[in-house]
Amino acid sequence: MADSPSCDLKALSPLQLFERVTEQGEKVRALKAGKAPKDEIDAAVRMLLSLKLSYKTTTGQDYQAGLPPRDLVLINNGTTKEEDEDFVDPWTVQTSNAKGVDYDKLIDRFGSSKIDTDLINRIERAIGQKPHRFLRRGIFFSHRDMDQILNAYENKKSFYLYTGRGPSSQAMHVGHLIPFIFTKWLQEVFDVPLVVQLTDDEKYLWKDLTTEKAYEYARENAKDIIACGFDINKTFIFSDLDYLGTSTGFYKNIVKVQKHVTFNQVKGIFGFTDSDCIGKISFPAIQAAPSFSSSFPQIFNGKENIQCLIPCAIDQDPYFRMTRDVAPRIGQPKPALLHSVFFPALQGAQTKMSASDPNSSIFLTDTPKQIKTKINKHAFSGGRDTIEEHRKYGGNCDVDVSFMYLTFFLEDDDRLEQLKQAYTSGELLTGELKKVLIETLQPLIAAHQERRKQVTDEMVKQFMTPRKLAFEF
Fold first, then answer.
1. Beta strands across the sheet bearing 307-313
2. What is the pLDDT of residues 113-144, one digit of tens each?
3. What is the CATH number of domain 100-346+459-464?
């Protein structure tokens, strides 16, 4: 009797389909070598052909042994032009659409679940308060297993939060704040521990940095993270270059992940080539390890069954798809995820911001004057070419960067809706909308800078010291 697929083939990623085809091909060869009955061989061949067809339908290319697909997101936006496709991986985000990436297609490609009204309402019931504006406005738009986290919480079971930062420069920009603003809120409303990974090792491997400079950036970025208001009794911030050498639990989990992920898999997921250094190839296991509570024995008392919730931008999902695939094979619970949209560059939503381009975003070190100048000079406008045309036809909030930024930082829903209607109708001009954003960001950045001044080196040391947090496990 022929084997049937263990799950719906449509639910499998390109890499998973590649592995299924490979396995089935090996099975056919084994049956032929063993001179199995003809009907058994024929059934296995039919299954192989079916898998190859599914692979071609999903990837648009024929299966080639030993050449896994590169599991990056390449989404066609309803056109056949190559330049009209979205491209997303953990290092690059590109789209030709001024509205930004098509997130519905991204959900379909990644196989995650949309954060819908039912889930938001369930979160509101669980925490007994209004959901964060990032949830209300679809800024965190996708999830994996958030329902399991809520099940645990409703049944008085523990979970913990894990997020991170790749310290590629001394100064962070406002886009870097998004996961930390949301994570702080999650920590407060659910009252759970938080671990923050600073991947200074990653930046050393990918950037032209010394290990000393990467670690220095990590400590400087830690100050900005602490300035977001995290509770020192509930938060552990760690540098990979520092913590990895002190925690046997952390390293054991890295090794377990490394053993269960093949070179072909990481090539397929991350697009690594034979010319990449082995540090890059092994790094995904290091980003995976904080997903397991046994990596932090000082916090969780050695327990391995505490589930993890990871708030992150959607471009980090490939790391955690790999992690979720490995977790059951090493006896660990799969981490759950909450995915955010990308924070747009001032010049438009076509790309992510760059810490190396001072005009691509508002940095946390910018003065009120710099903030005003950057927004007035560089913020992409959805307005018309002339005041007369704008009054007649109105502006386009879908592409206007000032309005996009306000959806992230303006707390008042009614005020945001009023601005949208006024701008769309032509009543509100681009310069006036930019003025609202300037008046929103200037005090926000100034308050952050003031809090950061209060963060001492001793405080950073306390946050980054492995220790027991204010929780019992």
1. 113-114, 140-144, 336-340, 307-313, 159-165, 194-198, 235-239
2. 999 999 999 999 999 999 999 999 999 999 99
3. 3.40.50.620
